Input
Amino acid sequence: MSTIESESSRELIACECRQLVLSQGIAGALATFAVSTLFLLAMRTVHSRERLAIWAVAVLSISLLRVALALWTKRRAPVVGRLPNTRAVCLIVGALAGGVWGAAATWLFPVGHSELYFVAAFLLIGMPAGAISSFGAWWPAYAAYVVASVGPFAAYFLIAGGAEFAVAGWAACLFGMFLVREGYVMGRTIQRNLAQRIALLDMTRSLGEALDRADDANRAKSTFLANMSHELRTPLNAIIGMSQLLAEAPDAPEHKRLPDTIRRAGNALLALISDVLDLSQIEAGKFALRPVPFAPMRLIDEVMDMFEPEAAGKSLTLTAYRAPDAPERVLADRARLRQVLVNLVGNALKFTDAGEVRIEWRGGADANDAPMLAIDVVDTGPGVPEADRERIFSAFLQIDASSARAHPGTGLGLKISRDLVRLMGGSIDVVGEPQGGSRFRVRIPYAVVNETIEAGIATTANSNPKLNSNVESHASSDAESNSRAAAASRRDRIDARVLVVEDNRLNASLVKLMLERQGCEVSCIADGAAALLSMRNTEWDIVLMDCQMPQLDGYDTTRRWRDIERADGRARVPIVALTANAMAEDRQKCLDAGMDDYLTKPVVLDDLRAMLIRRARRRAETDSDAEALRRTREEAHP
Output
């Protein structure tokens, strides 16, 4: 059996068997006492009282020893079998218990009293056979019993002389070997039964642990659903309610600020969904880091600009301190570090009612002298009790979990922050401040940036268009984000013919309005087959492709169009994914299908415009290259 295969399992079973041998001492002692009493009565006229008394004392002593060991075993049942001296104890007890009957069959043999020979035969056959119930659990102890009881009898008869005694001696030897074999078989049977019992106990324990884990998972799922229900309904309530107010009275003066409120509620809803997706990706081990060169000072300035209005609204001071040894530029995952800082600063402002929130950053090194970026977010809020400083990094957990808590939220931010920092090879923890408040400490490793590294990153990005989605947002030295680039160019109209392939009419109408606002000529189609026909008959500058559509989805539509381009020698039409699937593997799936770029729903106007500008620049570069090639050919062949 598999349970017996490992050395540890075999030793555990052997311990259990030795424990069984010792625990049977009381029953064995009672049986020995009864048989020895009858034997003494039968031999009272054959041997002297002194000889019988000596043997009786030996039997009684061994019986008392077995009783004492049995009682001791029952009191220490969980550990006795694992004590290192139990092997020797079991062997000694087996030899002594069998030895007294070996002495009875030889030293007390009724020579000249043939009518009592059957008593010796009984001792030879009955006692070793009966002892298998006491010593059979552990074969070595039973073998010691048989050798000590049958061995002297066989030797006595073989030495005594006479054919009949020799036959009896050899018969005793054969019988002893038979008993030893039977004891071995019985011991193996008991071991198998014990192995099955241990396996059953292990299975029961495993099932119990699995049940506990399932219960924990169900409780976590219930907690998750309760949190999500609350956090989703809150912004949805604002979106739906304010939309109804706008529909009923769009020109009412008090409703002028409702669109901005709806937008903020939508952003809060999107942030919640993004947090859940990030958490699921991290826990699934599918979260990929994207290191880029950046300046920590500019990143922190960006975070401070984001939270300055909130701090001013609460009359809090938001400051930053840069140590002299802080690095100018580092190579790390800027986007994820920004996400961590946004979570920490947002929490600090949420829980601080008076005083300040401060961001400190400096350089450092780990135990191996590798460079480390140290960033602390310090606040003057109520602080985190020491008992809760580890718990707050758990998902969906807040120190105040009551429905009347002053600071609502899902409790995902700190969990995601810790997971992200650990993915970057760093650490995050929280300590108390002497004057009150909390200090969240972030430590992440980074690579020192030089011109060679930055040039290599730029070359790689330009040579592999599929990487542009990862690098373009961080081009050059902390280049502006897509939203800033779009905002700076908001007045410029984009002359492009765009085909929108989207089966949802509401989404198609929204994207069409956004594109027309940028100056694009737009046409909408609801399925992939019609899109292929339109792309054959019309030259489009950009195609926005929904990925999930009935009959022919966006992936297959793109693959078929790329096949058509290769077969007909057509110029490549940029196809941009337009999808609600926001996981990293979804982006890769789009690129593998032949798409050139990727936009997630809900579509952000700034992201859409940044994509259009990006594609317009590439189209201009392509046209310029084509024109230069044409001129070169004309000059070569005038």
